[in-house]
Amino acid sequence: MTEAQSSDKLECLRQQFGSMRTSRGTYESKWQREARYGSPNDMIFTSSLTPGETNKDQQYDSRAELALDESSSFFKGGTTPDGQRWHGLEADDINEDDNKANNLILQGVEKSLFKYRYLPRANFSPARYEAVRTMKGFGTGIMYIGKGDTREVPIRYRHCHLSQCYATIDNYDVVNGMFYVRGMSPMQIIKEYGEDNVSDIIKEKASQKSTRGDQSDNTLIDVVNAVIENNSFDPDGLNIKDARYSSYHFVLGGTSEDKFLRESGYHTFPYAVVRDRHTPNEIYGRGTLGRVLPEILQLNQMKRTHIKAGHNAVDPITLITEGGSINPAHLRAGGIVRGGVDSQGRQTVVSLNKGERPDISDSLMEQSNEIIERAFHLNVYISNALRDTNRERVTATEVNSIKQDQDRIIGPQAARDEVEFLGPMVEREIDILAEWGGFLPDELEEIDFKIVYRGVLAMARNSDQVIAVNQYIESVIGMASVDPTIIHAANFYEASKVIGEANGTPAQVMPSREEFEQRVSAEQQQQAQQSLVENAGGLSQAADTLLGGGSLESGV
Question: Residue 504: what pLDDT?
Fold first, then answer.
């Protein structure tokens, strides 16, 4: 790309980003309102927050925010639980025997992915939680998967707040581009991109002590990373600029003489994006906070009224006679109020009874809380966790039934998460490890594989099959007590495969069909040999008896 072409491209990207930012104003006003009452720390869509600023002055009830936190934790734990192999790689060849050998190779790749993904400095778990929380609350969660600085930490993860991200989609409603903007100090820009790539204006600001490293809003410079599909994509190209996605870093504001801070490319899309439900003409999802915003606002107003009613009930207004004069200090506990009763013994100081009914507001708030909890699926998460807590044991059928409840309600969102977020993330991780070299076996390039998920919610999806198989096997065994030949109606090997795969059993534990038949054949041969030995012993004894009998007869 010539200098003139680079300048034109920079100006084109600046205009595109400016148009995207302007057209998203309706979204951001909506998100800002939802954040004000449902998650005040996220009120950065249309304004900025000073670090440490108190931002809950308009929030009288925190139930929606707590529900968002709890639901996000449950969802993350059900899809990507820490300390558990929540996904695997399985060979997808037609020949099952080839799959057995390939699965062992893929398990080594899987082990590497989990090892480097969960390194402390990789930052996967916090970034994943924040992305889930933003998706749950506002409809879209975004995480960046980048190449690490060293082989010790080859992959790094960063949560990208929705307020900083502007996405594009293709004809299939799949996110295919991202403009990520963040404020950086002049010194941060120079450290990130090198002094030779920044403008003289940034160098001048970096040389001034008052602005070089300040993180306040008035000194930060907006830097945009635009990742878009490469119109010159060459699958056989050796230059990174021929990759499927082009990457451009540039300063948002500036002069026409500015140039790109960095030009690069990606073989796989570096942003994992998960969206909640949205209409066909919308790019961003609509989160749960928006769906229950009427209840949140109503609950907020009722809580204010409830607080006022409680104040009036506990510390009511005091009424005295027109000519009375009472020192407020006399109204404290144990105080003596002169003139508090008249000569007839009637009180001259009484409390104003406005007819407050806190019990009614309690009931109304409980109804709103229930709606909010159901919207965030807390009724499914918590009720299933606490179900049958007084019983010592719960049957396997009941456990599978609980999983079915979760899958029917939360399954669609979990499936969307796998397709939009987790699948592209795993592909990106494998691409990064391959780029480093030495992390992956050479045989991986020749293996067709698929990603299988083993989190709680993914396992719930397979519970129907497990229940059906178990019930069929139990029925066959029951009928076999009447007719033993009916036992052959069940293929126990295939039944074990269905149950094993549904529960995420490792490949080395489940034998292939060939290995299974070899083991059965070896066992049958061993039993035949043992039977032969036993029969040989019996025949030998019978022969000795017969021979002994013959000798007696000849003797006679």
Answer: 65
